[in-house]
Design goal:
The complex is a heterodimer of chains A (459) and B (49).
Chain A: E1 2-7, E2 10-15, E3 20-24, H1 26-37, H2 43-50, H3 56-71, H4 82-90, E4 97-104, E5 125-126, H5 129-141, E6 148-155, H6 162-179, E7 182-189, H7 196-205, E8 206-212, H8 217-223, H9 233-250, E9 253-260, H10 268-276, E10 281-286, H11 302-321, E11 327-328, H12 341-345, E12 354-357, E13 362-364, E14 378-379, E15 383-384, H13 387-394, H14 410-413, H15 418-425, H16 433-453
Parallel strand pairs in A: 4-6, 4-12, 6-7, 7-8, 8-9, 9-10, 10-11
Antiparallel strand pairs in A: 1-2, 2-3, 4-5, 12-13, 13-14, 14-15
Chain B: E1 4-7, H1 12-18, H2 44-48
Classes of the chains: A alpha/beta (459), B alpha+beta (49).
């Protein structure tokens, strides 16, 4: 399967099943398009089709290049992975990551919060140190030979239970040598309680810090107010700037992460606002909301949003060339060192390798399923009891979703988000169409950026 | 080549032979918590090499 598109002056062909990316002139772009429609076309027939517009020797030359790529396994390749991936998914899995909902409580009242102001359809609660230790013990015990273990302190707002976070990091470190493990800790925060002591600790112990900010002040304050209605932008931005500068100086990862909604369809301006504030590791995701929510992304918003991704991509290229570039999470694509095909096709790992943990130790397939009782898997003390649910998540992969079989982006999204599928279709192995449309656009932009920065010729 | 420029990419077919160690990050452990993105993740084996 070959996916072809034109973007920002580039003719691009993605050979979907090998992952090869080709930048084409107009002639080779059209020849490949014809061959993709009908592989039986001969060189003579193709020459006949284009000789009124192109010199026959040029056509021959382009065809020769196309055939060369085909012989090298870089064009018109086939999907040969299905059996291997299904076997891979059926293997005994280990747990390698936990999302610890360390606080089901929040000091903001963000309007789109899937955790319902931190409470996850349930009661407010903070995770105790004891439950947290049991969670880390559970992770170590179920991680097999996996060396790197990931733990995300999530919420609600994790800094509302900061003392326990610190103690759990210390507990995790105490387990490392004995079990030959390494914990990679991450924390996600709204910044309200961020202070020097928190920054200093996180700079020492956290592999990644995710700071929640939605963009321009009016956009941020509209969706991320305090419970009294006052906006949080002015309080958190200076702290995030200080924190990000420290992490940058230390070479440590962080993300400024935003959510865009129907109220800021011009979200590229918000991402650029992040960059103008001095941040350089950025992420911005579409809100996932019930279709009847006023802030939900609607199908008719998609053309506008796609245009925004194009604008953002062009601005990123411009700034990169000027020496003031920034990264955007959904445009990051690692063409040379990216994941193997097993990872790309076997799904996100929710319900098998990655689990969400409530403050009282209940296990769910991921943070987005927390509070949905029919997905309760067990708890950190007794382990997983609903192996039938785990088995259903094991079956989630690209091949279990019929829409993915013909989608060029399947090697980049791994079949999409099971929670989104559940929320919109009541099953975990379907697709969320709006999310898919936007993901396809992001992949196209990401590849175009690679072409532009590689100095590829525009058509 | 005159008509086609191919960017350097990791061959997915080759990764079928050598991949599958499972040491990589899970998808939601970074800056995305509401979508699924794997194409941008780094292979732990490639990091070592």
């Amino acid at each position: 399967m070959v996916h072809q598109y034109r973007n920002n002056g580039y003719n691009i062909a993605l050979d979907v099943d090998s992952g090869s990316v080709h930048i084409l002139d107009d002639l080779s772009y059209q020849l490949i398009a014809e061959l993709e429609k009908n592989r039986a076309l001969t060189d003579e027939e193709l020459t006949g089709m284009f000789r009124d517009r192109y010199d026959p020797s040029d056509i021959q030359e382009a065809l020769s290049e196309i055939h060369g790529l085909e012989s090298a396994g870089q064009l018109f390749t086939e999907d040969i992975y299905k059996n291997a991936v299904i076997d891979f998914k059926n293997r005994p899995t280990v747990v390698k990551a936990l999302c610890l909902n360390i606080a089901h409580d929040c000091n903001l009242a963000c309007k789109y919060c899937f955790a319902e102001e931190g409470e996850y359809h349930g009661r407010r609660a903070l995770m105790s140190y004891e439950v947290g230790c049991q969670a880390l013990d559970f992770l170590v015990a179920h991680s097999g030979n996996r060396h790197n273990l990931e733990v995300d302190f999530f919420g609600g707002e994790p800094l509302m239970n900061w003392e326990v976070v610190k103690k759990l990091v210390a507990y995790g470190r105490s387990l490392e040598k004995k079990h030959d493990k390494h914990f990679r800790f991450t924390i996600t925060t709204n910044g309200v309680l961020l202070n020097d002591e928190v920054m200093e600790f996180c700079n020492r112990e956290m592999d990644n810090v995710v700071m929640s900010l939605d963009g321009r002040q009016a956009v941020h304050d509209h969706m991320r107010p305090f419970r009294n209605g006052k906006g949080s932008y002015e309080l958190v931005v200076p702290k995030f700037q200080k924190f990000a500068a420290q992490r940058k100086a230390l070479g440590k990862q962080y993300y400024i992460r935003g959510t865009y909604t129907h109220y800021n369809l011009d979200f590229a301006r918000d991402v650029i606002h992040f960059a103008d504030l001095g941040f350089d590791q950025l992420s911005m995701e579409p809100v996932v909301a019930p279709a009847d929510a006023d802030y939900a992304i609607r199908p008719e918003d998609i053309p506008v949003l796609k245009e925004q991704y194009d604008l953002l991509a062009q601005e990123m290229i411009r700034r990169q060339k000027e020496g003031r570039g920034f990264t955007f999470f959904h445009f990051m694509i690692d063409l040379t060192g990216g994941p193997c095909v097993y990872k790309r096709l076997s799904g996100c790992g929710s319900g098998t390798e990655y689990l969400g943990v409530t403050p009282w130790g209940d296990l769910y397939p991921c943070h987005q399923f927390v509070g949905n009782e029919q997905f309760l898997l067990g708890n950190v003390k007794d382990g997983i009891v609903r192996t039938d649910i785990v088995d259903s998540f094991k079956c989630c992969n690209v091949y279990s979703r019929k829409e993915c079989r013909t989608c060029f982006a399947r090697y980049y999204c791994s079949g999409g988000c099971a929670a989104n599928s559940w929320n919109f279709h009541g099953r975990i192995d379907d697709v969320y169409e709006i999310g898919c449309e936007l993901e396809r656009k992001r992949v196209e932009c990401a590849i175009m950026i690679k072409a532009a920065l590689a100095g590829s010729p525009e058509s | 080549m005159k008509h086609i420029q191919t960017l350097s990419t990791r061959s997915l077919q080759q990764s079928l032979k050598k991949g599958g160690c499972g040491e990589c990050q899970t998808s939601c452990q970074s800056a995305c918590k509401t979508s699924c993105t794997v194409g941008n993740q780094t292979c732990e084996q490639m990091k070592k090499n």
